[in-house]
């Protein structure tokens, strides 16, 4: 490429060149390019890009989590040095496992909800039957949101589940899992609102699975394995959170 052409390259051209050298999932690739489009940087001259301009574009994004996601994407796609805010610790005040079990016990979404509640599945993983042997479900596939095709999951691996659920899971026909993402998502939200008075999204069932493990005394490494997180710090940051009243109660018991 001529030196003049190098000088006039757009952010999109630089990103495409950088990403061509990397082995990444198609969904990640599209996410990087989507960030450039949303921030109106596709045709922006790469040489004129500054931290100030990037921060101005990011300031247009309404939510902290989405702003953080775009900042991470810019780092990866353009190789720019831009500060990325730490993710806020997620805190949930969720119904008990027993309450959620009763909520979905006779629901048409029982197998989907229980796969998230008792195996920590993501919704896309609950829409396709996974290999199951004994009391272990091995997550190695998911159903794509828009195309419904079966693809590799975000993270894979074995998860130990209660024996009664493993038996139910193994006996459930594969076709019973095959529902659309929007259908199950809306169905779970409506069901929890009707039965519990609290509208929950499907991913919160996965969070409840993690919280139940912590409440039962699971170690961080066990939590990491069961949640299929790449790094244990993800498990710690998002799920192992003690409420202030728990800490206060613990301190009150000291010395008594």
From TrEMBL:
Keywords linked to the UniProt accession: DNA recombination
Superkingdom of origin: Bacteria
An MF annotation (GO) of this entry: DNA binding
Residues of the Tyr recombinase domain: 90-252
Gene3D superfamilies reported in the protein's UniProt record: Intergrase catalytic core
One GO BP: DNA recombination
Protein name as catalogued: Tyr recombinase domain-containing protein
